[in-house]
Amino acid sequence: MNRPHDPGMPDSLSAEVGRSHPHESAVLHVTGEAIYTDDIAEVSGTLHAALGLSSKAHATLLAMDLTAVRNAKGVVAVLTAADIPGVNDCGPIVHDDPLLADGSVQYLGQPIFVVIADTHDHARRAARKAQIHYHELPALLNQEAARQAGSYVVAPMRLQKGDARTALGNAPHRLAGKWTVGGQEQFYLEGQIAYAIPKEDRGMQVYCSTQHPSEMQHIIALALGVHAHQIVVECRRMGGGFGGKESQSGLWAGVAAICAAHLNRPVKLRADRDDDMLVTGKRHCFSYDYDVGYDDTGRITAARVEMLARAGFSADLSAPVATRAMCHFDNVYYLADTDIVALCAKTNTQSNTAFRGFGGPQGAIAIEYILDSIARLTGQDALDVRKANFYGRNDAEGRNVTQYGQKVVDNVIHELVAQLEHSSQYRQRRSAINLFNAASPILKKGLALTPVKFGIAFNVTFLNQAGALVHVYTDGSVLVNHGGTEMGQGVNTKVCQVVAQELGIAFRWVRASAADTSKVANTSATAASTGADLNGKAAQLAARTIRNRLADFAVTLFGGTAAEAVFADGMVSLNQNSMAFSALVQKAYLARVQLWSDGFYATPGLHWDPKTMNGNPFSYFSYGAAVSEVIIDTLTGESKVLRVDVLYDAGQSLNPAIDIGQVEGAYIQGLGWLTSEELWWNSDGRLMTHAPSTYKIPAVSDCPEDFRVQLFNNANVQDSIHRSKAVGEPPLLLAFSAFFAIRDAVASIADHKINPPLTAPATCEAILKSITFIQAAQAAQAAPMTGNG
Ligand code: MTE
Ligand code: HPA
Ligand code: MOS
Q1: How far apart (Å, rounded) are the C-alpha atoms in residues 15 and 268?
Q2: pTM > 0.85
Q3: Ligand 1 atom closest to residue 211's alpha carbon, by position in its atom list
Q4: Is residue 324 within 6 Å of ligand 2 at its C-beta?
Q5: Per-residue pLDDT tens over the stretch 594-647
Q6: What single string gives the DSSP state of each residue in 80-104?
Q7: Is any ligand 3 atom within 6 A of the Cβ of residue 358?
Q8: Ligand 2: does its nearest atom lie under 6 Å from the Cβ of 458?
Q9: How many angstroms does the Cα of residue 652 sit away from the middle of ligand 2?
Q10: pLDDT digit string (tens) for 649-674?
């Protein structure tokens, strides 16, 4: 079968990196040829599993009558925790996360048993027939209730710099308050799925939609009580992960493998959307309690904040998520004396997990809310208050050490914001909006520019490693396997570009294969936006090793020195001679030169002390800024984003088209988080927003009609892969600008003199509440002070 060729891409190109190659699977995506886990041709004898879920938020399991389930049509077997031969756990860090509930249930939706039947439908129908007797226990349903009860999944964390208490006491002005942001469902288009096929000698091949094949291998090996070398996990691609498949694909992979091992038959476990949303964790919602000091110019002089995250029933990744939140409370702003506490509340709800930004958005939006409020108190444009707080440009300017001790050595936020302020005509539009609002009593417009700085690296240092395996075949074509997983973000495209560049051949000669634990071992999750950084470097090193061998071999043919060999445009040139890459490869094979190699990369310069919360957790920072203009209807609370201008620092972009796509997608996903996506649990702890019918992600009609995304011309100061910068998560924070533009529109009702409280997501209801507050506050101010008491 022919591989799709890049339209208009000639064979001879001197640089593959930096070009806007289409996604390597773009044609397969749009023709429907791309194979996702559920599309893999089923082995004969394949069975289908479904989970039986808890209907209580917190209870002891008294008795389970599964007779009706067993007797249901098509059922082959029903398994519970007692049938797990090995370890009943899928917790990535703390082992508090049973695959199947054992003795008690801790949230409504927790899997209790699994039923295996001849068809997916039969399994699902049977799962509903269980008679489960619960002894109900009191449930903690939100983070405030958990805090009251002192219920946490991990010990409280504290990050201190200087003496915040004294500095707050000395501050010219103070602002204290409370605020909340909601959680968010990942809403990957392809739901959680795993397909397990037993192999000889207690081996197991598992196809799984996962960002973390090695972790799946580990969970399955433990659950089955076998060695890791008996388990192979493969993922060709995901239909999105967004963090939701970093740890939480473990449940599905583990349970599918247990079923397959028990019956010695292939078993597929695919969640339908409602079950997926009921069972799996989401972005953590956060509550904040803050107290800051500031001066007349709006510059923050001291800050104290307590962040309370709803972790759900188990630890999962909550500790590193909360750590990233604490390390992003500064965003692009210098904080002197600071005291940050983070609490991971243990609640009887889904175990919250990674979601694009991994706590960074929740950390940074808090300081943005505070600065936005300070601007109204000092009567300044919020952009000027933001600028007054920026980190210094360099050592001479000072103000460049973060609250966790890392020095910011690559600050470009001054130039980047200045460029965007100019290109977006921020000041002119501000005046125009003031005029519009003065003449428009019902519809109000708002505008905001918000900046972003995002730390790149896993904040758990050891995870910053990657491997790759590059094969050059005798026809000159190249197959790359690397530790990263493809979830639509384009990591394979970028890695193939890097390898093509290294070998001096055209992109179409290089192909990436599925992520596979039997090819590259002990991989980290594809997460923390590091996929291309880590795997790109590893693949580059592998390709370089092969190139060096080929160069040595070329010397035997042409003379000269290996260092002089040039690999470009599909040719290898040395000492006035030149030969096609494929011809040289053919000759090298006959001369018994090894034409494949591994590569390994570990990010240098990282260290982190979790006890003192101090160190150099990040390799570098990605920067960006966005201007959003919105309009709200003050009668209905509806909002619409009219225009968005973005400038994003992708360093020397590996692939501008893919990077711009990532920026656009992340902005819209952030917009959903902050405006329309509301998770709602009823008083029993049942998530009622468990399908697209009740949970509103952005639609095409929510996208701004005028959306201008540009990449900032910059090069990474760190020796990252071709001096590029990560792009996967940071642009999600650009959607802050839409939220603060909405708040600006609400504030315009009272001439920007009163701070409207506005919780996120800014749904119609939240906006109306905010409007009601501000109208009441305005009326109270306008009322004559001469009343009779
Ligand atoms: N883009 C698409 N299309 N689908 C996804 O699931 N996940 C995001 C981001 N962009 C995601 C995406 C998240 S949470 C991360 S951490 C990065 O991609 C991971 O990929 P990278 O490290 O290769 O950028
Ligand atoms: N991002 C994503 N996953 C992680 C991180 C991170 O910073 N740290 C540990 N797991
Ligand atoms: Mo992304 S939240 O680090 O998977």
Answers
A1: 43
A2: yes
A3: 19
A4: yes
A5: 999 999 999 999 999 999 999 999 999 999 999 999 999 999 999 999 999 999
A6: -GGG-SS-----SSSS---SS--SE
A7: yes
A8: yes
A9: 24
A10: 999 999 999 999 999 999 999 999 99
